Amino acid sequence: MNYNNFKVVAKYTIAYGVLLIMVLVLLIFSKIEYYNRSLYLLIAGVTFATYLLLLAMKPHFFGIQLVKDVLEVRFYNPHPFVGNYKQIKIPLSEYDGYEVVKTLFGPRIIFKIKRGKRTGQYPPLSLSAVGRKDREQIFKFLDNLKAQHQSSSNN
After folding, report:
1. Domain ranges (residues) in the chain
2. CATH placement of domain 1-155
3. What is the spatial distance between Cα 117 and Cα 9, in angstroms, rounded to a whole number?
């Protein structure tokens, strides 16, 4: 499976930029316009609250693919000013499944690894920008990976 949600995340990147520009323009108008100052400040406040809601939702880019015997997960924040690109590479011999945690702003996925007798978890990754059908396909893919790995290690 090779999945990424680049097109969806591009819309969020544009939304971040538009919301920030709107807040700045409304604040400038509130300084220039005397009679409608409170209206401009109210609209700027609502726009900024929408911006903060988007930030809290964390609509990250999420890409997943299997390259040889390594599960590669790519993710980054689509904010136009902060591009922090990250990648997790999990060898299938260490892959021990995943856990989905539901939060107020959308589901998060936690990848689990096992090295010898030790187990570990990666930090949660946001799936809020991944559609429901795509999430189901990703979960099926990850479940199949774990089942294949367990059956091959038992043989």
Report:
1. 1-155
2. 2.30.29
3. 38
Cβ pair 61, 5 in contact under 8 A: yes
The DSSP letter of residue 116 is T
Q: Which amino acid is at 7?
A: K
Q: Is 155 helix (H, G, I), strand (E, B) or coil?
A: coil
Residue type, 106: G
What would the two tokens of residue 152 be?
Answer: 């091959």
Helix spans in 58-155 (H)? 132-154
pTM of the model: 0.77
Cα–Cα dist 75/85, whole Å: 6
CB distance 120 to 113 below 8 Å: yes
54-71 confidence digits (pLDDT tens): 888 878 888 888 888 888
